UniProtKB/TrEMBL annotation:
<protein>
    <recommendedName>
        <fullName>Lipoprotein</fullName>
    </recommendedName>
</protein>
Amino acid sequence: MKTLSVLKYLLVFFFFAGIGCEETIIEQGFTIGRETNFQVNQLYTSANGQYTLKITEIKDSRCAEGVQCVWQGEVILKGEWTENNNKSSFEIHSVVSDQTKEPIGYTIKIVDAKPYPKYGTVSKPEDLVVTLLIQKK
């Protein structure tokens, strides 16, 4: 009986451990009009080869779990967009959209950013995975 009880607890433990291990897939390519995951300091090329995107800086000021904040905070991305060898800089804000500077003719929206900040833990920008939706205007 004791063995059966221990076995139940082990199964429950492994179940919850498996749920906590969410894997985010990072591809080195993207498609206009499709959500794609990106990381800082990586060069991504569009499926048709016409565009490249590189995030050069990520600022994550979102209110951490376990903390009560006055403002929700936001994610800010700075980067470089290249279209047919013409490079331009961009700056995208997840909340304050009037400060966003997008490449001419395109919109870039921050759909998600993981992991979410937690009180008492330190995360580095290179650990953050940002899901973006890039669309033509």
